Structure formats: C-alpha cells, structure tokens
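Ticket reopened. Same input as before:
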Amino acid sequence: MSSALANLREAGEAVLRIAEKRGVSEAEAFLVSNKVLTVRLVNNAVFESKGVHDVGVGLRVLKGSMLGFSSTADLSKGSLEKLVDAAVATAKARKLPFKYSFPKPDKVPKVSGVYDKRLAELPSEKAVDVAYEMVEASLGYDKKVVDNAGVLNIVDYETLILNTHGVSTENYGTFFEASLSATAKSGKEVSEGSDATAGRSLKELKPESVGEKAAEMAVSGLKTHKLKADTYTVILDYEPTHAIIGYLSMLVSPLFAKLFSPLLLDKVGKKVASSQVSLVDDPLMPNGIGSAPVDDEGTPSKKNVIIDKGVLKTFVYDSFYGAMEKKRTTASAVRASLAVGVSSFPGKNYNCENVPVPRNAYFEAGKWKREEILEETKNGLLVQRFHYTRLTNPTRGDFTSILRMGLFAVKNGEIVGAVAKSRLLDNLSNMLVNVDAVSDKLIVAGSWGDYTHTPVIRTKAHVLSID
Amino acid sequence: MEEDLALFAVGYAAKLGADYVDVRLEDHYNELITVADGKVQRGIINRKRGMGVRTLVNGAWGFQSTTDLTKKGIRQAAEIAFKIAKASSRHVHASVKLAPTKAYKASYRIKVKVDLEDVAFEEKLKEIMAWEKKLYTSKKIVRGTVDYTGIKIGKVFVNSEGANIRFSNSVTWAGLKADAKKGVVTQFYEKMVGHSGGYEIFQKNDMEEISVETGQKAESLLEAKAVKTEKDAVVVLDSNYVALLTHEIVGHPSEADRVLGREAAWAGTTWWAGKIGEKIGSDYFTAYDDPTVGGTLGYFLYDDEGVKAKRKVLIEKGVLKGHMHSRETAAIFGVEPNAGMRAITFEYIPLIRMSNTFLGEGDWKREELIEETKHGYLISCMRHPSIDDKRYNWTISAQEAYEIKNGELTTHLRDVALTSIAPKFFKSINAVSEKIELVPLPGCGKGDPMQSLYVGNGGPYIRGVATVLGVQ
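Engineering reply: fixed in the latest deploy. New output:
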C-alpha cells in the first residue's frame, strides 16, 4: 500500500467512525489522491507547466431513508467532523421516496494494464521534453507547418472506497493525454490539423506520431474547395465517432436523460440505430482508457451491452438510480462533477456524488477495414474532426458540428481533395439509423480530457460550407 | 485565513530563484441542489481549502496547487512550481514579460443580506422542491428541473511585488426548466435567476411565480408555429438572446490569448486579430467588459493577478478598441493590464476570462424597435450556440420568436435559430434600445484542464439582419 493510500485509509476509517457516532444508518467514504501534471504548448513553445495534487473525501450518508452528501479537501479530524455534520444536514433535507442502501461487498475482478509506474514517476523535466517533442515532430514534418499548440496531461490517481457494509476497495491508475494542433501555410492558404491520443502507460505515449499526424492533416488541408450544401455520405473517422459515442453515453444515463436530453427515454427495446451499431460498455477491457475493477461506489465492474445491433437494451445505472427506477446497478457509478465553479480534473474527483454513465463505452468493431469503407464510397466526405459539437435541440436530437479541419472529398473510393470549413447540420437519431459501415479496428481517440476506444463509421448527414 | 502561509510560499519560491511569484490562498464553500421529476437528484455541500503557487523562472511559467497547508506541503508545492517552470524555460522562445501594475493592498467583500450558509440546507431544499412542483402547470409538462448553486469564496492574493488583496465573494443562481409534450411535439423552456450576493435573491423574487411562467411558456411553445428559414431577415434580439450572442461572438474573441493564437488547440482563435482601430461594425455597435458592475456574476475589483478592475472598452461605435488582458498579454500589446485574469479555484492557473461582457445602450425605446419594423422577427431568450473557431460564423438557437408584421408582434414561433457572419451582422445593427439588462451565465468553459466559470452577459434590445433558420 502506498503512503498516500495509507493516509486515505486512516481518514476514511475515521470518517466512518464519526458518522456512526452521529447515528447514521449507513456511510460511504470515497477518498481520492489525484495528481495531474499539465504541459501546455503554444506558438511552438512550452507555454506553461502546471500541477495539481488533489486529495480529499466525499461522504455519503443514509439516515433511515434520507440521503446526504458532502466533501472536503481537509482530512484533519476537526474537518472530518464538520464533513459528517454537513452530510447529515443535507440528508435531513432529502427523504428518498424509494428504498435505498449502499452497495454490499462483492468479489472484485482484476483489470490489467491500467497502471504504469514509469508514467506515474516520469520526472516533470522529462514530461516537458516529451511534450515539446510533439512540436519538433510537427515542425520537422514539413516546412509549411508554421505553428503548433497542444497539451500533455499525465494523471496518477489512487482511490479508496469504504462503506459501513464492509466495502473496502482500492483502485489506482495512470493515464496520459497528448494532443497537438498544427497550422500550415502556403502562400495565402492556411490550414489546420490535429491529432490527439491517450493511454495508460508510458510505452503508448508516442509524441512524434502525434506531431506528425497533426502536421500531415494540416498540410493535406491546404488548397480547399467549397461544398454545395447537400446530404452526403459521411465517413466519420475515429475522433468524430468518439464524439457520437460521447453523446450516446449521456443519452443512456437516466440522470442526463432527465436533465439534458430525453431523446432515448422510453426507447428501451426499440430500434434507435442501424443494425451495424452496438454500443458496449466494458470497464474490464485490459488497458482500457476507462477501465477499472470497480465503479466509483465499489461495485465490481461488468460488461454491459447497451445497444445491441441497433436496439436499445438498457440504460446504465449506479445503485442510486437503479433503486430509484427499480433496476439493478450496471456498475456505472462515476463521480463526475456537474457543478460550475467546482474543480473537475482529469482522473478522479471526490467532490460530487455518483452519476450513472458508461465508463468505458465503445462501438463494437464491425467487419469493414477503414480503407474498405473509403474504397467503397462513391461520392462522399471523410470527416476527421468535429469541433463545437452540440445538440442544438436536445429534445429532438438536432445535431451540429463545425468541420474546421480534416475534411476531405471522396470520389469513387479515393480522397480527391480537401474541403473548406463546413458545418454538419443533421439529427443524431437519423445519423445513427443511417450507419451502414463500422470499421474492424478501434483506437483511442478524443479531445480535451475525454477519450474512448472507437472505430470509424459511415453514415449520411447534411453538410454545408461556411465562410 | 493564515495570510502568513501565502507570504511564506511567496518568500520560499523567491528564495529558490523565481523571478516572480504569486500565491492564491482560498477557502471554498459550494452547495448544489438538483431536483427533477419531483425527486432530489443531487444535494451536495463541498468545502475546499488550499493554495496555488505560480512562478516565473527564466521567462517561463510554472504552477502547483496543494491542499496540504503545512509548511512542508507549501515548500513542496513551491519547489515543484519552481522546478517545472525552470524545465519549461528550456523550450521557451520568447520570455514572458509582465506589464507593470501597482502592488495594491486591499480588502473587500460582496454585499450579502442573507448568507448562503444561514439558510438551512433543509429549508433551501424544501423551497426548491416547491419551485419544481410549480413548473407542472398542466399535464402537458412532462418533466421539471431545478438546478441550484451557491458558492462562497474567501481569497487572499499576494505576490512577490508586494500586492496583498483579500476578497470575500458569494454568488448563487438557479436554473428552472420545463419539458412539455403534446403528441409527437416536444418543447422546453428555461429561466435563470442569479447574482453575486446571498440567498436574498430567491426571497426577493417570487420563485414559484417564475416557475409557473416557465411551465406556461413551455406549454405555449407546443402551440407555436415552427419557423421557416428566411435569408437576411430583419431581427430584433431581446437582451437575454443578446447575452449569449455577446458572450460567444464579442466576449470570447476579445480574450487576448485567443487573439495571440494561444487557444488555437482548444477554444480557437479570433477573426479580428490585428484589426485594432478598424471599423468592424455599425455606429450602433459598442461593447464593454466590466467586472465592477455590482450584483453580477462577473463582479470583482481585483483580478487573480492583483490588477485593479475597470471597464474595458472592447468596441466603440463599431471600431475595435481593445481586448481583455493578462499582465503578460498587456506587455505584448504594449497596453495597460486591465484585470482579465481569473481562475475558478486555487487549483488552476488563471486565464483571461470574461467578467460582465455586454453591448452598450442606444436611444431607442424597446417597443420602438418593433413598431418601426415592417417585417421581421423578435428573437427571444438564448438557447444553444454553435460557433466556429474564429468566432466568425455563428449559429445560436433561441427559445422562442414572434413574427413582426407592420410594427406588431404576430405569430408565435418555435424551433428557431439565427445564423450569420460576425462582421456582416455587426454592420447590420441599425437600432439599439436605451435600457440594458445583464443576465447570469454560469458554465463558460475554457482551459485545459477545463475551468467552468460564471459570468454576466447582456445588453440592450438590438435590431439587425441575420438568416432565420428553421431548426429541422
């Protein structure tokens, strides 16, 4: 046990003792030590390097049928007493209209490839150098590349979940995020490209590859032509497909369905996508970007098939939403802060209650090779990046994204040129129903701290060039 | 708070060899209540206390935060901030220089009538449940949601130049949403109430009445007509819609780090980079950012670099006048720093952020804008934005609209969005009302790791030309 975990355990056991003395029926402490090192790159240079070491505890208490929550970053005895008082105060106000109890101890599976000591202990000087290698690789790729900006985040987290039923689960992991945006210029033409990847170990971190891919996209985007506004066959490369998975992951959460978009409410058992689409959540995946042996309330991880061949099979639940909606937990508890003005870092956060969301969601691989999808597209677009993606009408699923870079015309199976900045304007449900190809390989793609394992898909969408 | 700890951190980092150090020592109290479907979805109290140490070493920035406020913990944070700044300096092409500012010593606090912690959590929750209940104005309302947030922050800022500023802040807001359904038609309506201050805002306003209005609005949208696309239509925008428009296509592109391309990999850049002094809009188009407007979510008197706040003129009668700055970007532009830097907590390095960004007033009465429009649309209340990276091409949806015919509001319209090109729209503004309104806008995202901040935005009613999109 690391010294950080030993300190967390001491605080966690203390807080449960205090809670029991205050007469709560059940208590659960979620304790976190989360280190994030960020190197930001701007204008071909290191702009700033910054670190955070976030340590704290989130406490849930049940007093009869009343549920409360509070958190603190101060693990001193006096502070822990105040923490319990605050949690009890919130419980007094929140009587649950259904029966609820915290998870009971269960056998915890093992998940491999989620922690790498070398990544956790990478010296900050070395991290700065690794980040800068992305810039060097991009500038070295082509003289037309004139500017680069990006980020390297390295996260090292440890969590401990203790509850009064005897749940006691330790969880630890590492991951990195490396991304770069490159700008290329040729005469008056300016083009952008980007690449972003994430992984759980240092050996997966390949800064040269990120730099070169960003530069390649930027250079190949020079000399664009405008599009006629129309409905096109669109090949959504890894990153845009990741964005679609991200939206679907929210839509299958009973909480987000209520707060944000009810698009899939009442659709369980119904067709919501083409039969090519299966959305799976597997936090047991070795080396998975969202993998962990337990969810954020200590329930052992399990694989969930959410959409099976286009049919919505289930929403995802933690124990709380499961109890509310009379469903079993799908081990989908995630401590994700929805609050403005509250810190929320890559890694683990303790300052919020669980919300039910898929933890390592992906579209199941299809039968197509990526190049086959391209080859068998007669007239369409290859979309490599989404930006500013929104459900403009979350109730109906109206969907838009700016295609700012990495947009190419495809004719008779070949890329025939770059397309100027455009807007995709369609409906998410329609796009899912129209998926007719899914690639056979998944890679880790995403942006801004949010990554998934994702294939390439092909669908139809309305696209128009914009100024 | 033990100010000595902050001064200790500054002294220790300076002793290590940092050329400049600033420290924010902060106490945070946050409460969040979410009620939906008649049930409490979340009820949370968070407390956090800690310190952020920012260093400048050989022209490069380093930063480390800690919640370990022992001298050992502070020394460790200062050492890491120093070490990573030094490591970064090996890959810096242009050393950071800071525009000079006075080392202010000040202490100020938000005026609060009812402290957020003086109203029992239980009491708040009961009230919020009652607001949510009132959203259900008929069986057509299928879902109600109320999201309440209260934040208190005690902050000490000190730096190696001698600045010493204390700020006691308190902000709170509540968002209400009603989802309505009739057959296959689904609609929703949202309202937001908030300010800098205490819980008194929810006592001053009749929140149950606001809930009823929200529910009724959602219901009315079920009967409204879906708008049809019309290119280059005359549009009158209400202050609430102007708030989001200003946020997205005036506020964000005015951030000097975006202008310099420093946000290129994240939020994007700015189409008006290098255009200071150029005419980019009509004479009716003036915009400010002003943290000193009391009662707003963006209120402060000194930013997170200790710079004294003042009104920034961003655009004056259509001419681009200036940007929002940090001390660093002010030095690059050769201007005075203007207090643009904020971080959501001590755990984050400050960034250039909006405070209260709004359009300036004109001399039209609101009703005159409509009366003197032969054919057009009144666009009311913000919904969702989708803006390109340069803040040039914009699309923003609205909660509702009314067709204007011969100076009168006629058909009630739903599913409406506007789209245009920023300079084209700015040049089309031909009438501005005399009264301005600022609205709370929580949830402005920027940075990596992301910092979700609360700001104020708004302006008068304005009239211009944009394409009305029927959202399909």
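Chain A has a mean pLDDT of 94. Residues 3-21 of chain A form the longest helix (19 residues). Please confirm and we'll close it.
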